[in-house]
Design goal:
The protein is of the alpha/beta class and 249 residues long. It has nine helices and seven strands, in the order αααβαβαββαβαβααβ. It has a seven-stranded mixed sheet, with helices on both faces. The mean pLDDT is 95.
């Protein structure tokens, strides 16, 4: 059966509404907590580098999932609206964050049901899960329409199509993003590294199941060590994931 985004994510979140469901499901909740700490660190680095103020600003969190970034922006006193493709995310987050607005919508659909515009649009780990090119272009168009002039878009991608190894993952290169974003009136102003060692699973070249399990346990046990190394040294050239810092013209 071909990848169907809504059904796929409903199953993942329905089985376990946690960071390990929203993040790298091949690793434990503990491992994903380290992973999300690096995502938060990189987001804050982007905000500092480009002088992006978030207190009191309107934020659209695209693919709000289990609410990690909703929580972050809310704690920073932003006015947050979240959209997600799943019913379970919207239902749970409405109860958890009553001061925020949540909408069930597919960012790649022709109409996402929002009319207001936002100062900041947060799009972490979303666009590379849109495998259809037409839906990807619609998603970029929707983001452009919902962003205020001079507003900021923060999105993530590996920017390496060759690393797209799953049916629900399609990374795109920087040229593709530059063209698509440009058509939506959005400029890429910089890149921020996210992690270099974290999120590296067992190589697909390892076929023996016992060996794969043993290597997986080693990777899990070294999560804290990989996290510390990524905190200390994560150049953009070798980073597995990047934040594209973008601005609406």
């Amino acid at each position: 059966m071909a990848y169907q985004a809504k059904e796929y994510w409903e199953r993942r979140f329905g089985a376990r509404f946690s960071l390990s469901a929203a993040g790298h499901q091949g690793f434990s909740e503990r491992y994903n907590r380290y992973l999300y700490k690096l995502k938060k660190r990189s987001l804050e680095a982007a905000l500092r580098r480009y002088g992006i103020k978030i207190e009191g600003r309107s934020v659209l969190d695209v693919g709000c999932g289990t609410g990690f970034f909703v929580d972050y922006y809310t704690r920073k006193k932003s006015n947050v609206t979240g959209i997600d493709i799943t019913d379970i995310s919207v239902r749970i987050l409405r109860a958890k964050f009553p001061s925020c607005t949540f909408v069930r919508a597919d960012i790649g659909s022709p109409d996402i049901g929002l009319k207001e515009t936002f100062d900041i649009i947060n799009v972490f780990d979303v666009l590379y899960h849109i495998v259809d090119d037409n839906a990807f272009e619609r998603a970029i168009g929707n983001i452009g329409e919902r962003c205020k002039q001079g507003g900021w878009i923060l999105l993530t991608d590996a920017l390496d199509p060759e690393k797209s190894v799953s049916e629900h993952v399609r990374y795109r290169d920087i040229e593709t993003y530059s063209l698509s974003l440009g058509r939506a009136g959005i400029d890429i102003v910089g890149l921020i590294p996210v992690f270099r060692l974290m999120s590296r699973g067992v190589s697909p070249a390892v076929k023996n199941e016992l060996v794969r399990k043993a290597l997986g346990r080693v990777i899990e046990s070294l999560a804290w060590f990989s996290y510390i190394l990524d905190l200390a040294y994560c150049p953009i050239g070798s980073s597995l994931m990047k934040i594209l810092v973008c601005r609406k013209r």
